[in-house]
Amino acid sequence: MKQTWSLTEFTETRELGRGAQGRVVLARHRKSGALVAIKYLERAAPEALAGLRAEAQMLGRLRSPHVVRLYQFVETPQGAAIVMEAVNGVSLRAILDKHGALAPEAALTVLKGSLLGLAAAHSVGVVHRDYKPANVVVREDGLSKLVDFGVAALAGQGSSSGTPAYMAPEQWRGEPASPATDVYAATGVFLECVTGRRPFAGVEAAALMHHHLNVPVPLNDVPEPLRPLIARGMAKDPGQRPPGAAAFVAELEATARAAYGPDWERRGIGALAGAAVALASLFPLTALAVTPAGAAVAGGSVASSVGQGLLATAAGKVTIAVAGTAVVAASAGTVTYATRDASPAPRPSPAAVVTTATESWTSANPRVVLQNAQYVRVSGLRDAALQQRINRALRAPLDRLIKMGREHAVRSRTACEGRPTQIYSTVRLGVRGPALVSVRYRLWSDWCQAADGMPAGEVVTIDLRTGRRLTATDVFRPQTLTPTGLSRLQSLVVQREPDPPWSNCAPEGRFTRKHFGDWTAPAGDREPPMLSAFFTPSAFELAWHVSGSDGCQTLTFTAPYAKVRDLLQPSVLSLLNPSPTPS
């Protein structure tokens, strides 16, 4: 089919799939160079256009690191298009086809990541309805992301849409879908990951329908500790399953810890990363260098913008007459930054061990669900009081979020109509010792499915020798905080990755006076400074966080340490060890 139209602000790099009414392409934004995936619908029937519009609406309601990000939906007389995040990774379907069954820890890890993505959808009232291996992308760092909401619907809507091998009994009956419907499909895929086979054999729809409706799922080849998890997740009656993905995550983690030890997830992530990277040689464009939008930092790993990239398409159903294609760009590994130890600051004795922890719980009154919230903590210090003080400061953003969630649940009890307020956090670790730790938090809440804005994120930087949290006046020389100094700082740090990649939140990639806010004051009980210094091993960053729903909620400005060294307090430079090398 001859191309009839395209978005003029993008240059197509590669066509990845084509159907009767549309195509899927990899493209770059002309101005920023950011790589995105675009799903085009051309000369489509009204019902197909409505389907793409609905998919965009579903994706637009979601803000989660576990779900592919929607950047833009465009509708013209010539057709419609969804502009989406290009995800680093390979489909779970390809991994299972190549490797067969996965180790239990790896299977549990991919299930957890998928459940977190589904939980984000459930928190805004969206049911995926077509969870399957082709709709899960496993990145090269072993973490996963949920894609393709082509048949997603609001909870309570009913139809027989889905992939037969994983469809819940209520879908076969055409009954309303609920979060428990996605739990059934995710558990079925988990069974396939553990055993190498789908829940029920056969390809004929009538036989599959009979088995899903009437036959208990076979568990003979499932490891004994995992059988109760699968039996519960694939119960015929949706009322006997976990009520949603968030609740199932808590059960999964308890089972995994009991059966495979406290470090099960670390081993699972390592195994998944190896399985994904092992497929690199099978991809057709092994020499293509790509820079996905927002790929500079994802989930704590650093992706090179000039490294080797790879492309593939995930096998899947035809959705709105376009093959359900996942755009992936996987590198052979992650970039590790090495720095020289020039003039080391005095090391604490013993050195703090900095780790990322997670916390999950549910409270009944008020109704709040904390689902796999990340926070940072230290251990290994002889001074128990100092360690407690540091951990209290490091956890402060999560405690602020919990307080906000509880207050919202009480204040909006009538408006929420019995729905819980779901909250969670993600962290990015920067410098982590021996004398300084710097952490960037992103905070998330569904506000009992109101989806009316996210809480502001926050940066926490701690002097590990004293337990003191640093403010802007601790970080910058006094002259830097004058109008002249701020103008110089403004000229040196540039926006790293606009989100969306072509947004004009920071004109010409520079932060403006509105970004300053009251950034010299210490973090308050309710809102932290909007602009904060964030220290990474490779570069200096200014992190912008505000509450709200628009694309300008979180911004990053960065510069090599060599450029801003004379603007920073000497005492802070002495804490950066290993010392950042000039660049």
Fold blueprint:
Blueprint: E1 10-18, E2 22-29, E3 35-42, H1 46-60, E4 70-76, E5 79-85, E6 90-91, H2 92-99, H3 104-123, E7 126-127, E8 136-138, E9 144-146, E10 153-154, H4 169-172, H5 179-195, H6 205-214, H7 227-233, H8 245-260, H9 264-277, E11 297-298, E12 301-302, E13 318-319, E14 322-323, E15 353-363, E16 368-379, H10 384-411, H11 413-416, E17 421-432, E18 436-445, E19 458-463, E20 468-469, H12 472-475, H13 483-492, E21 494-495, E22 531-535, E23 540-545, E24 554-559, H14 561-564, H15 570-575
Parallel strand pairs: 16-17
Antiparallel strand pairs: 1-2, 2-3, 3-5, 4-5, 6-8, 7-10, 8-9, 11-12, 13-14, 15-16, 17-18, 18-19, 19-20, 21-24, 22-23, 23-24
Helix pairs in contact: 3-5, 3-8, 3-9
State the CATH architecture of the largest domain: 2-Layer Sandwich
Calculate Rg over CA atoms: 24 Å
Structural class: alpha+beta
Structure summary, number of beta strands: 24
Assign the CATH class of the largest domain: Alpha Beta
Give me the side-by-side strand order of the main sheet: 15-16-17-18-19-20
- What do we call the CATH topology of the largest domain? Heat Shock Protein 90
State the shape.
Answer: globular
Strand content: 15-25%
Unreliable stretches (pLDDT < 50, length at least 5) are: 150-158, 281-349, 521-526, 578-583
Biggest sheet layout = 6 strands, mixed
Distance between the termini: 49 Å
Name of the CATH superfamily of the largest domain: Fervidobacterium nodosum Rt17-B1 like
Count of folded domains: 3
Oligomeric form: single chain
Q: Helix count, per DSSP?
A: 15
Q: What is the arithmetic mean of pLDDT?
A: 74
